[in-house]
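Board notes, transcribed. Complex of a protein with guanosine-5'-diphosphate.
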Amino acid sequence: MKLQWYPGHMTKARREMQADLRLVDLVIELLDARVPISSRNPDIDQLAANKFRMILLNKADLADPDTNTAWVRYFEDLGIRTIPLDSRERTKMRTIEETIREVSREKLERDKRRGILPRPIRAMVAGIPNVGKSTFINSFAKKASLKTGNKPGVTKSNQWIRLNPSAELLDTPGILWPKFEDEKVGEHLAFIGSINDDIIDPEELCRTFLMDIGKRAEASLYERYRTEYDDDPDVLIEKIALSRNYLKKGGVPDTEKAAAAVIDDFRSGRLGRISLEFPEEYGYRSSKE
Ligand SMILES: Nc1nc2c(ncn2[C@@H]2O[C@H](COP(=O)(O)OP(=O)(O)O)[C@@H](O)[C@H]2O)c(=O)[nH]1
Ligand SMILES: [Mg+2]
């Protein structure tokens, strides 16, 4: 599958990101819990060097819970505070707020040690398109007692959401661009819907998806479509079409419709909670084992 992120977009995103980063102390990086590696742009490590950091494994409700826990361990071993999250749930914002408070305390202490007058910690959200940045900011803003700078004439890029007396969040997220160096990355981003579907053939996407999840998804596929598993994705798609009664003229299985349904079911969680990436695939060995 051929996928890309246009260089012009990338340059613009990088420039904006760099400008906004100058304003903040804490970078809250949103990753997709199903594909934490593919949804991560490693350039952030260099861009946000010397900043406080936090990772939110967003859409954790769609990913396998044990795998979420494993990823938390993975990123915490790298020294980054990590929290699995469903951004649509406002109740979850408390945990994030508490974590930001902890970071603020660290910052205040650091300021004091350096003899700098303490001021509120400033945070920004960053992540690739569709990872849930707006949803998160929205949930957070509604939870926050006060929104500052929300008046006509105040420039959009400088609005801050006041979380508490010692923390503020920039209300415009930083857009990070995906890195398609590895074919797998592009595929995983296509599965979760982070890449414009118009350029992708649904059957090819579905075939690649079924081969990627392989037998791991046997139970989920059976549960959803009442079909026996088959190693051949084309056979499997045909079986799903028949089982769903997706037929074309002459009773021919409508594999295109079935393929689109599988992908749609995966993206919306109707196939159950499925993770596509696992720490051990990335050479990770927990330090606690
Ligand atoms: N299931 C689930 N969906 C989410 C979550 N966060 C965001 N979404 C959905 O993901 C889509 C993209 O979210 P959006 O906030 O627009 O992403 P942005 O491009 O990073 O700003 C929307 O349809 C959201 O409703 C989450 O934690 N769980
Ligand atoms: Mg957005």
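Confidence is low (pLDDT under 50) at residues 145-155. The chain has two domains: 7-175, 201-282.
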